[in-house]
């Protein structure tokens, strides 16, 4: 693909295969073939021509870039519904976002591309997939939820989604979690995501008013002992 120096609007769908690294090489090959068949069927049946989209292979997943001409209501409605009906290769995490992107001739670049990967690789997404009784989980960016999902276009059900807090690398944002066929898991993970994280390191109290946090000593005076 030719390099794009100007930003171009697009929608992004990322799929990541759960526990891909545990598969044997032949199993990985079979899973990847099944992954692409599933994606092509999901987009085509959902009303989006697969050939109109670009995609970037990620080994254990795929980034699909849909042009601005593809309605977001179609992606979040019929396409997602078709994809989440059945995951033939086991388990999958999906994330959907929209925004601006560049292409440098090697791959897709931009803050919005980073965001959709932060969502799909987030701790929230991983914990949801590990906990759900279903075969997949979906994270939708707050931007898409506010603009599309909450209005119920194309029979999209806003009540299927729960707001979660995402803190990954440089990203601190809200997103919306859906666990198809298992709404209770989305509710539980959402509650957990809003709880404050405990600070890292180990805290010890050393006499009086001295406190050690991690490797830092705070408060009190350190008086060396005299040698006898």
Describe the protein:
The protein has one domain: Nucleotide cyclase, GGDEF domain (Alpha-Beta Plaits). The protein is built from six helices and eleven strands. It has helices spanning 25-46, 72-85, 111-120, 123-131, 142-147, 183-193, and strands at residues 4-17, 54-57, 61-67, 92-103, 108-109, 136-141, 162-168, 171-178, 203-206, 210-213, 216-218. The strands form two sheets. Strands 1, 2, 3, 4, 5, 6, 7 and 8 form an eight-stranded mixed β-sheet that branches. The chain starts with a strand and ends in a 10-residue tail after the last strand.
List keywords for this structure.
single chain, 228 residues, Alpha-Beta Plaits, eight-stranded mixed β-sheet, 6 helices, 11 strands, 32% helix, disordered C terminus
Q: How is this structure best summarized?
A:
Residues 175-228 are annotated as: Disordered. With 228 residues, this protein is of the alpha+beta class. It has six helices and eleven strands.
Task: Write the topology of this structure.
Layout: E1 4-17, H1 25-46, E2 54-57, E3 61-67, H2 72-85, E4 92-103, E5 108-109, H3 111-120, H4 123-131, E6 136-141, H5 142-147, E7 162-168, E8 171-178, H6 183-193, E9 203-206, E10 210-213, E11 216-218
């Amino acid at each position: 693909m030719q390099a794009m120096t100007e930003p171009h609007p697009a929608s992004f769908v990322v799929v990541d295969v759960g526990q891909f690294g545990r598969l044997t090489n032949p199993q990985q090959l079979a899973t990847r073939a099944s992954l692409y068949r599933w994606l092509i069927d999901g987009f085509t049946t959902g009303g989006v021509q697969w050939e109109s989209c670009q995609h970037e292979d990620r080994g254990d997943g795929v980034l699909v870039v849909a042009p601005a001409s593809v309605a977001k209501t179609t992606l979040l409605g019929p396409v997602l519904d078709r994809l989440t009906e059945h995951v033939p290769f086991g388990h999958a995490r999906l994330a959907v976002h929209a925004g601006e992107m560049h292409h440098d001739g090697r791959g897709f670049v931009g803050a919005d591309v980073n965001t959709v990967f932060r969502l799909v690789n987030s701790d929230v997404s991983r914990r949801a997939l590990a906990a759900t009784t279903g075969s997949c989980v979906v994270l939708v960016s707050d931007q898409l939820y506010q603009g599309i999902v909450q209005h119920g276009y194309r029979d999209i059900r806003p009540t299927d989604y729960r707001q979660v807090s995402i803190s990954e690398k440089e990203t601190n944002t809200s997103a919306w979690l859906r666990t198809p066929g298992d709404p209770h898991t989305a509710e539980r993970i959402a509650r957990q995501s809003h709880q404050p994280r405990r600070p890292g390191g180990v805290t010890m109290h050393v006499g009086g008013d001295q406190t050690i946090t991690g490797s830092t000593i705070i408060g009190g005076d350190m008086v060396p002992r005299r040698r006898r």
